[in-house]
Design brief:
Layout lengths: L2 E3 L2 E3 L3 E3 L8 H9 L4 E3 L15 E3 L4 E3 L10 H10 L4 E6 L4 H14 L3 E5 L15 H12 L6 E5 L6 H10 L4 E4 L4 E2 L3 E2 L4 E2 L5 E4 L4 H14 L4 E4 L5 H9 L4 E4 L1 H6 L2 H16 L28 E4 L11 H5 L5 E4 L2 E4 L9 H5 L5 E4 L1
Parallel strand pairs: 3-4, 3-16, 4-7, 7-8, 8-9, 9-10, 10-15, 15-16
Antiparallel strand pairs: 1-2, 5-6, 6-14, 11-14, 12-13, 17-20, 18-19
The structure holds flavin mononucleotide.
Length: 369
């Protein structure tokens, strides 16, 4: 499945996101070899950002990082980009700075080094004060405009979920001349506290990523898609072809993979690219635009919703081989009873909330009239 993002023709909608897995030319080469449609560099600035130790912590819910962008000097990136570009793949340089003119300076340097496009990182929560630059539409406008006025290559602005109105920020990026937005960067987090030591797991606030942020990111992408006419690159918690296709169906033109490369290695890129190709072939889809935003019509406002008198029913027969009793445990209305694998539903009590249907491991339940 091909896609077109910011005028760039991508062989697949799968892009590798900014992070330490793309910290130099050699790592970027690995992403291209794995089949990525484009690769974004780790974020480059005028500083050699320090590598705090430790700086990444994970658990079964997600990953917190307190990484502060690339520790390579900007000048080194000229050589790294040359290495990365050898394979002929599409390279997007991620850049950051503390003022519009400084950002334009870094952007010009990366354009001269051969980057095909830029991603403005105005949204990493670590190392920032309480508010990231991307929480202000006005600041995003100033930063983006300065860059757009000084480079010829297309500019994408990476947005934060830590904002009250992401549509407004996306509108300001578009007004300043951005060719696309990416959503989302890591939301601000504290992964947890070591209760024996009485200390947080990492020594400062960080950014949250992995599967846990996918629902937040999907909502951000859908919100932008419904309100702003600008291409969107979806990012957050993607590790399967299904995850990626969900983003496309909610309005994304392409997607990015980050944390999954830590958790599964560069092979995850191939897995997602091939999974999308297989799905696309089975569904006769050649270009991502054919499915872009198709699921948005399924998002209604409460005013538009009709409430059908649905209740929970067990599919086919009244038995369940697993006998796990999950449906009984989660029913707040005491409408489900499981005895020796036999599920009984009291329709009078069932209010059709759907929780048992969505959590049933054997998918035996359904909502119907
Ligand atoms: C260890 C780590 C380092 C990251 N570094 C950057 C970075 O340098 N620049 C940036 O824009 N985003 C950075 N991110 C954010 C990712 O690019 C991505 O937006 C986010 O992690 C959500 O996607 P994921 O769940 O697929 O990782 C980083 C994320 C992680 C986990």
């Amino acid at each position: 499945m091909k896609t077109t993002l910011m005028g760039l023709e991508l062989s697949t909608p799968v892009i590798v996101a900014a992070g330490p897995w793309v910290r130099d030319g050699a790592c970027i080469e690995k992403c291209f070899a794995a089949g990525a449609g484009a690769v974004i560099t780790e974020t480059i600035g005028t500083q050699m950002y320090m590598e705090t130790r430790p700086r990444i912590a994970g658990n079964d819910m997600g990953v917190q990082n307190i990484c502060l962008y690339s520790h390579l000097p900007m000048e080194n990136w000229v050589d790294e980009i040359a290495i990365a570009k050898k394979s002929g793949g599409i390279l997007i340089a991620s850049v950051t700075a503390s003022s519009p003119t400084e950002l334009a300076y870094v952007a010009i340097k990366m354009e001269q080094a051969g980057a095909d496009a830029l991603e403005l990182c105005l949204s990493c929560p670590q190392g920032e004060t309480l508010e990231v630059v991307a929480s202000s539409g006005e600041k995003v406008y100033q930063m983006t405009k300065e860059v757009v006025d000084h480079v010829k290559i297309p500019v994408m602005v990476k947005l934060s979920q830590n904002v009250s109105n992401i549509s407004y920020v996306a509108k300001m990026a578009k007004k300043a001349g951005a060719a696309a937005v990416s959503a989302i960067n890591t939301p601000r987090c504290i992964l947890g506290v070591d209760i024996e030591l009485g200390k947080p797991l990492l020594p400062t606030y960080g950014g949250y990523s992995g599967a846990a942020v996918k629902p937040l990111a999907l909502a951000s992408v859908a919100t932008i898609a419904q309100t702003v006419d600008i291409p969107i690159c979806g990012v957050g918690g993607i590790s399967t072809a299904k995850d990626a296709i969900e983003y496309l169906m909610l309005g994304a033109t392409a997607v990015q993979i980050g944390t999954a490369v830590i958790l599964e290695g560069y092979e995850v890129i191939t897995k997602v690219v091939e999974g999308i190709s297989k799905w696309a072939e089975e569904h006769h889809v050649k270009h991502a635009k054919e499915i872009k935003g198709c699921a948005l019509t399924g998002l209604q406002s409460f005013d538009e919703m009709t409430v059908d008198p649905l209740v929970c029913k067990i599919k086919r027969d009244e038995s369940c081989e697993i006998g796990c009793t999950v449906c009984q445990k989660v029913c707040m209305y005491e409408a489900v009873e499981c005895t020796d694998g036999v599920v009984e539903i009291t329709s009078d009590r069932c209010t059709g909330c759907g929780v048992c249907v969505s959590l049933c491991p054997s998918q035996k339940l359904r909502l119907s009239w």
